[in-house]
């Protein structure tokens, strides 16, 4: 049973995202049930194979965060938010240990299941009017409860590196994969979330830089580009309406856009407070464990949570917490350096695309998005287990 849950850990996560606000209400009880299910999976996976050094930094980081919760202004909220961050991070050591479960067949099946869920969710949501369109407030483009989950789309698209580089794929199947990929790209572009789109093109640029191109791959990529153009043309009216509605944030004087952007303003407030050292414990430790509501300038931002991950981390866990967070990624990269020469090349490409792109993605936030975070850490881990 545990092996089945681990094999389909990501579709399970995505199902919870889709079902929330549709099959059941979006409330604390629903989130707690989901958190409990994921915690049970991770806990039992850990205790079955506990003796590995890969766990060490994650254990220390978990203890560091948990020790801050009693000092938080709202301990219950801090516990809820911390559990999201920790559950996603723990996916790395768990799936590093259990990566052998992910054969190429299981990996491709996961990618296709996730893609199918995202596409079907869009079709059903638009048909039944589930969710809302944050820019046009109409029903021409709805994705249910995923209206703020565009990094999930971006990092799902990165996984197609594995499919595109898989050998001995028949032409009809290859065309099917390209259609699935194109449909997800179109949804991402229609979403008009600047960070998610920028991260997608950044990741694609890294991939093309690393890629060893040949005629077959060039033809495949050109076909994918043609499919995307074709689909975009089919949705041109919807895209124009959404660009028009979004115009104040994607057109005009870029300096003015940046200077009025809340992410820019929050960064000034947060980092000035941290480096002022007026309250040394807060500067070093944050003492809020991922709960940023009411914990920075309320006169300007009210109860708005911080949107940039780095601001959130340093504001709520301090400079030590930020250093610890970056150490986690340094630790992961060291595992890559140790195993690099043994890895199949497409998994080296996937690792570097996800690893580098996630730093840019953190500008858009969503480190507390369990599904996005799980995709990121699960495939960083799996990529390191696939020998050539």
Task: Give a short overview.
This protein has 388 residues and is mainly α. The protein is built from 19 helices and no strands.
What does this structure look like?
By secondary structure, the chain is an all-alpha fold. It starts with a helix and ends in a 5-residue tail after the last helix. Helix 4 packs antiparallel against helix 17 and helix 7 runs parallel beside helix 10. The longest helix is centred in the last third of the chain and has 31 residues. The protein has 19 helices and no strands. 72% of the residues lie in helices and 0% in strands.
Low-confidence stretches: 253-260
Task: Supply the number of helical segments.
Answer: 19
SS elements, strand count: 0
CA(first)-CA(last) distance: 29 Å
């Amino acid at each position: 049973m545990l092996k089945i849950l681990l094999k389909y850990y990501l579709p399970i996560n995505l199902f919870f995202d889709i079902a929330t606000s549709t099959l059941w209400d979006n409330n604390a009880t629903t989130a707690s049930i989901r958190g409990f299910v994921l915690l049970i999976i991770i806990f039992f996976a850990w205790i079955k194979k506990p003796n590995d050094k890969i766990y060490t930094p994650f254990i220390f980081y978990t203890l560091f965060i948990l020790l801050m919760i009693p000092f938080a202004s709202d301990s219950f909220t801090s516990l809820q938010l911390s559990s999201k961050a920790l559950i996603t991070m723990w996916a790395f050591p768990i799936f590093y240990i259990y990566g052998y479960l992910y054969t190429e067949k299981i990996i491709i099946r996961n990618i296709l299941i996730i893609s199918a869920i995202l596409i079907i969710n869009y079709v059903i949501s638009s048909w039944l009017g589930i969710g809302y369109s944050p820019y046009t407030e109409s029903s021409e483009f709805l994705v249910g409860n995923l209206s703020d989950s565009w990094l999930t789309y971006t990092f799902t698209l990165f996984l197609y590196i594995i499919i595109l580089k898989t050998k001995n794929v028949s032409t009809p199947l290859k065309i099917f994969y390209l259609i699935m990929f194109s449909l997800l790209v179109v949804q991402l572009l229609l979403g008009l979330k600047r960070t998610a789109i920028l991260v997608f093109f950044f990741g694609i640029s890294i991939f093309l830089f690393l890629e060893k191109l040949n005629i077959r791959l060039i033809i495949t990529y050109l076909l994918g580009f043609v499919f995307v153009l074709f689909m975009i043309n089919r949705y041109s009216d919807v895209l124009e309406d959404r660009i028009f509605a979004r115009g104040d944030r994607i057109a005009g004087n870029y300096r003015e856009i940046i200077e009025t952007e809340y992410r820019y303003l929050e960064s000034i407030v947060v980092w000035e407070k941290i480096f002022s050292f007026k309250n040394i414990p807060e500067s070093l430790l944050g003492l809020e464990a991922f709960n940023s509501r009411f914990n920075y300038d309320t006169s300007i931002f009210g109860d708005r949570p911080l949107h940039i991950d780095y601001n959130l981390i340093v504001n709520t866990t301090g400079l030590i917490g930020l250093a610890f967070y970056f150490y986690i990624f340094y630790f992961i990269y060291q595992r890559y350096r140790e195993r690099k020469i043994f890895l199949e090349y497409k998994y080296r490409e996937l690792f570097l695309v996800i690893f580098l792109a996630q730093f840019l993605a953190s500008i858009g936030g969503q480190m507390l998005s369990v599904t996005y975070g799980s995709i990121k850490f699960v495939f960083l881990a799996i990529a390191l287990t696939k020998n050539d």
